[in-house]
Amino acid sequence: MSTEQPTGASATGGIERTGNRSTFLRPESLAMRVCRVLGFERVAWSLRRLHCPVPKDALVLEVGSGGNPYPRANVLLDAYENTRERNWAPLKSDRPTVLGFVEQLPFRDKAFDFVIASHVLEHSGDPEQFLAELQRVAKAGYIEVPDAFFERINPLLDHHLEITQREGRLLIRKKPSPVVDRDLVDLYEDRAKRHMTGELFVEHPFAFHVRYYWRGKIDFVVLNPQVDAAWFAQETEAPAFATSLLGTSLRHRLQKAVLNLLQAMGRGRRRQIDLHALLRCPACGSDELVPERAHIHCTKCNRTYPIRNGVPVMQVAAASVN
């Protein structure tokens, strides 16, 4: 775990530069900043999904993409075909997609320029391995999670971690159980939940989330590494505040139309991606893979991974050993 100054920020909080080129990953687009200045936080929050501060030719991976992947992602990874953890929708595979676990990413070292992990880290019981794998396969990335404060008072039963950010460092606390402080949660639900989820959370989403950009190394610390957070997670329904954030308003429909347009514009470029050239065996780490029509075979450990509906299932438990 790094104790160094986060990459991109100087000791005084300025911007490091190499020659005349900034190495800083801008956390907000111009449109986002304008909306926030004008007080349109909900619009700015929606626009964040269109913001990916990388060159046009950068190769972008999204992990935990679920049913609503980021438009800029070139390659998608999710753990389940029928996941409902991301916006409570079936898995979307409209571009090169792989089934696998972030803790055992089936991709070669530094295969990607950028990796997006939005609302995924908090689902992991092993944050050290999760973050190590992100750093292994990508040169930079973006992590978005609910802030620890809101997770503590309004816990979701499939979230294993509480995460916040201080001075460019992620502070991670493992949850020993789905609900860490039952008395606090009961007080919150009795006195404040209706106002928090119905008003504050919806109108000020930036205040209740962590948005973390990194390059080269993720600066983080696990505050209680001795805790076992690998307990069984219960499936949860869409909370009311999440549904209200998605909305059915004209603004939301326009946003969805723009996202669909951007995805359609990128499909030609995505079709040119050689997915097999990016893969490696999640069990032994070998890139000596032989792709066939219905499976992918690792010649080093003799595991064979199935391909279902055109999607490689690169999970050790799904592999057969010859």
From TrEMBL:
**Which terms in the Gene Ontology molecular function aspect does this entry carry?**
S-adenosylmethionine-dependent methyltransferase activity
The Gene Ontology biological process terms listed for this entry are: methylation
Q: What are the record keywords, sorted?
A: Methyltransferase, Transferase
Q: Write one Pfam family the protein is assigned to.
A: Methyltransf_11
Q: Is Transferase among this UniProt entry's keywords?
A: yes
Give the matching InterPro entries.
Methyltransf_11, SAM-dependent_MTases_sf, Trm112-like
Instruction: Give start and end of each Methyltransferase type domain.
Output: 78-141
Q: Where is this region: Disordered?
A: 1-20
Q: Biased composition, Polar residues: where in the chain?
A: 1-10
Any idea what this protein is called?
A: Methyltransferase domain-containing protein
Species per Swiss-Prot/TrEMBL record: Ramlibacter albus
